[in-house]
TrEMBL record:
Protein name as catalogued: VOC domain-containing protein
Lineage: unclassified sequences, metagenomes, ecological metagenomes
InterPro entries to which the protein is assigned, alphabetical: Glyas_Bleomycin-R_OHBP_Dase
Organism of provenance: marine metagenome
C-alpha cells in the first residue's frame, strides 16, 4: 500500500449512521451529513454466492476528507461482516 497521496475518503462501518454522524459532528466538527436510508443493491455476490445487501449511509466532509458512515440494515454475510462482528465498528476502507 502506498501513502504517497493524501487520504480523501474514509468509510466507517457503524452500528447507527445517525448516531455516529451526530457524534462526529459534535466531537470533530465533521459535516453536515446527508443520510440515505435503506439502500438496496440490485444484485450482489459475496464470496461466490448471490447475496442481498441493504444499508443506510451518512455522507459528510471532515476538512478535505469525505466520510461515509455505513450501517448494515439486513444482517448476513458481507464485506463488512468479514471484518466486524455484530456490535463492532471501525474503518472499512480509505481512498
Amino acid at each position: 500500500m502506498s501513502l504517497n497521496y493524501p487520504v480523501v475518503q474514509i468509510a466507517y462501518f457503524v452500528n447507527d449512521s445517525v448516531v455516529k454522524a451526530q457524534k462526529m459532528a459534535a466531537q470533530h466538527g465533521a459535516g453536515p451529513f446527508f443520510l440515505i436510508e435503506k439502500i438496496e443493491l440490485a444484485w450482489g455476490v459475496h464470496r461466490g454466492k448471490e447475496q442481498k445487501f441493504l444499508h443506510t449511509s451518512a455522507f459528510g466532509q471532515w476538512g478535505n476528507v469525505m466520510l461515509e458512515l455505513v450501517q448494515q440494515d439486513l444482517e448476513g454475510p458481507s464485506p463488512f461482516r468479514d471484518m466486524y462482528a455484530p456490535g463492532e465498528e471501525g474503518i472499512h476502507h480509505m481512498a
